[in-house]
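Write out this protein's structure.
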Amino acid sequence: MPWNWVLRIGRLVILAGPLLWFGAGVNRRPPQTTAHHALFQGVQYHRTYRPAPRPTMLHVVKVNLAAPGLQVLVTPGQARALEWETNARTTSAFLREFKLQLAVNANFFHPFAENTPWDYYPRVGDRVGVVGQAISNAVEYGPPLQNWPVLCFLTQAAQILATETCPKGTQHAVAGNTVIVAQGQPAPNLATLPQAHAYSRTAIALDRSGKTLWIVIVDAKQWGYSEGITLAELAEVAIAQGADTALNLDGGGSATLVTATSGGPKVLNAPAHAKIPMQERPVANHIGFYARPLTP
């Protein structure tokens, strides 16, 4: 074969690779349908497709924190130089490593870069730092940060605080950038906040007792499939579940919800890290749940 044809074929292979990778991810996305089923004791999952005001895939998990056997785990960390406290890992890897039944991404983190599908940071194992307070097994590894509210897990209950610091006795905690619901009402001025536009979202909501928790995930970056949700719309979703408080966590390509199955971790939503559908982003930390299997 002439050398120029070898070069042409090589170029086609290089160009086709990312397209095949993208197409494989598209085919693995959850369907644009409604689904509702129990995952574990005290854990229920609901998926909704909303065609207006833009295509939106909405995933909600309701967790009864007082259910028998229900336990929480935030990714353990260790403070080191440059305030990089954890090794980046995907949400599926976190679930698998700690033998959890459910997991979701948590704190914003740094450093971060996403230039192309092959040029990004962090990769799995890279050191990263959480933004705001982080506590795992009663050990704080992420210090409180001004104006970064917290989600605090105590025994069989949780609370969302705008005070940046969890109370003594907190076993696990993560931080977000905005309280979007307070006392059952949308927080004021959500439309004027940075990144208030339609976007991929991860949020945690609580009822007044702090014993019922909702995980809300909204996919985006995927034209015609799911194009995100605004902060104001996210607040309304949380309130519709029955939330008294809700906290916005890291979103974008970080937004990932994973459950355990007999065949291994299963991603319930459609993350889009580095613009590739169903590709998980390695992130700094997560919230995980241990739960008992459903009884016959």
